[in-house]
Amino acid sequence: MVLEIKFAPLFVPLERRLQTLAVLSYTLLFTVAPFLSTFLFFVALFSPAFIFAIAYLTWVVYDYYIRRSSSRGGGGRRWDAFRRATIWKYFAAYFPIHLIKTVPLEPEKNYLFGYHPHGVLGCGAFANFASEATKFGEVFPGIKPHLLTLKANFRWPLIRALCLWSGICDVSRESIEWLLTKQGKGNVAVIVVGGAEESLEARPGSYNLTIRQRKGFVKMAIRTGASLVPVFSFGENDLFKQADNPLGSGLRHFQETFKKFFGFAPPLFYGRGIFNYTLGLIPFRKPIYTIVGRPIDVELNANPDQETIDKIHELYLTELSNLFDEHKLNYGVDRQTHLCFL
Fold it and tell me: Is the pTM value of this prediction over 0.85?
């Protein structure tokens, strides 16, 4: 321990070093890479390689606005070899991340998963549903998951390609309807319901979920006839520590204002470092247990009224609470702790 920083041993097994490298790559991918790739694009645009930059920009505009790949099942870009890449296995093993089935899912149906909580970087959501690191295809045979994210993420150079290869699509209405009505059966649209706003609540011991007024995912399940499935990841909020930002504080006001302009919230967080266990941008080594709950079957209705949406939404909250309470003692959560719906 030096200046309150606990350094990692000089010699550790290669396996652990590779796990740390995989997690570092993921962290940089969704924090630094979007801005770095954009910077490099503009550098190329004003260099002798400008013709390649223009060609790439033309393709992105065509693919984003004309083909609408991110809204139409990924435009056939899903790459199973990429989803099974060794890097994701090391990534999941770092924490480690576990995928736990409570009941089988029928391949003859389509599903809409509500994932909770968002966490800071959504590590559990990515490992379980955007890769095969936790063997989703074996746990739920015949089911194809599609993690959904902000449409804006498909405008970043490089990031958009990696998302499409992972089977990630955007979270627009068009995208959800395409996945759940036009790609046959056995499809899952995975929505991180709390979104960027919930990331501001992501800290160890927090079970606050931003969901009380979020009913769009329920409406889409009814419109498509897909079964709703609550999913809760124990440990997702334990990966980083975050600065105190209570409602009404100056920091929270800045974060919420930033979100209005840019579509995502900037949590002020820290984890461990590459060679220390105390301070850095890498998540702490904390296990994540992702529990996939029981499906809630809904009746197909292209134009559901608000009363129907509210009724199914309350049923979903009840099932989510039951899922949490049923499993919390297995993962170190106190018996008196319950989910708080914001």
Answer: yes
Pairing of strands 97-101, 111-116: unpaired
| Banded pLDDT at 253 (limits 50, 70, 90) | confident
Which residues in 97-162 belong to E strands, given as ranges?
A: 97-101, 111-116, 144-149
Q: Give the CA distances from residue 287 to residues 96, 97, 236, in Å, rounded to whole numbers and listed in that order.
A: 5, 6, 8
Q: What is the DSSP letter of 203?
A: S
- β-pairing, 111-116 vs 227-234, is parallel
Question: For the chain, which domains are there?
Answer: 14-31+67-341 (3.40.1130)
* Residue of 232, 247, 6, 259 whose CA lies nearest to 100: 232
CB-CB contact of 265 with 256 (8 Å): yes
- Counting other chains too, the contacts that 26-32 makes at CB distance below 8 Å and 24 or more residues apart are 26/91, 26/121, 26/123, 26/126, 27/121, 27/281, 27/282, 27/283, 29/159, 29/162, 30/121, 30/159, 31/121, 31/281
**Which has the closest alpha carbon to 133: 145, 121, 142?**
145
User: pLDDT per residue over 148-192, tens digit each?
Assistant: 999 989 998 888 999 999 999 999 999 999 999 999 999 999 999
3-state percent helix, strand, coil for the chain, nearest multiple of 5: 45, 15, 40
Q: How many CB atoms sit inside 10 A of residue 115's CB?
A: 26
**pLDDT at residue number 2:** 47
Whether 204 contacts 238, CB under 8 Å: yes
